[in-house]
């Protein structure tokens, strides 16, 4: 995905070739801007820019106000950057729609870019996910720092994140995958991969993610690799694409359903044969109903 890429624009719009700086920027621009458009109630990045930074629009004398900056975020052509003398788009959005900053600045984007994060950065990202996730992952405060300590995540906590089915829960799983690498814990990694695969059917239906689900999942697959231990002292990092895992799971479930249906049909035939045998006239008389 690195290097020169072409962005496919909607029908009737220009296709803009762009150098993709990294996977994080490409996906972050898509999803973060889409989240902001949804929160604003507008139906396009164009209208959002007219509201937040109308001074950027251009009128070439035909009465049409054209915008470029926020449309660039929406299609992944660019991401907000702090530049001297210019407003930082994330600050502008946060002032108008509090909470927007998180979508642009969550450390999940750094994980998708293949960066190795420190435990402190990951934990800070987990604490920014909101109370619904915090109540699952955080325990009593530390007597030393005063901040809540994180629980030892087990299958119960993973199941709760899957049941939530929110984008925040998805980010939590990705950050916990990163944490499992930072602390070298295979058990946590396996647990989070299971949660990740279980979450995908729910996440891909979210209005926020739906247009970009395939690329987002592919970026996670490329960045969060499975561990295969060759010996107790060495391991291999293996990329396993989630769409292949889901195909295998679907095939296995289909086989199981077919086997259950076959077993049920055989049981029904056996019951029918037993009933027919019971109703057959016996030697020297006829079968009579129970009274």
Descriptive report:
With 291 residues, the chain is mainly alpha-helical. 55% of the residues lie in helices and 10% in strands. It has helices spanning 23-40, 45-52, 69-74, 89-96, 100-105, 108-112, 119-127, 131-137, 155-164, 167-183, 186-203, 213-223, 242-279; strands spanning 3-6, 17-20, 58-59, 65-66, 138-141, 148-150, 226-231, 234-238. The strands form 4 sheets. It has a two-stranded antiparallel sheet with strand order 1-2. Strands 3-4 form a two-stranded antiparallel ribbon. It is globular, with a radius of gyration of 27 Å. The N and C termini lie far apart (77 Å).
Structural class: mainly alpha
For the termini, the CA-CA separation is 77 Å
The DSSP helix count reads: 13
Our estimate of the beta-strand percent is 5-15%
Helix % is 55-70%
Taking all Cα atoms into account, the compactness measure Rg is 27 Å
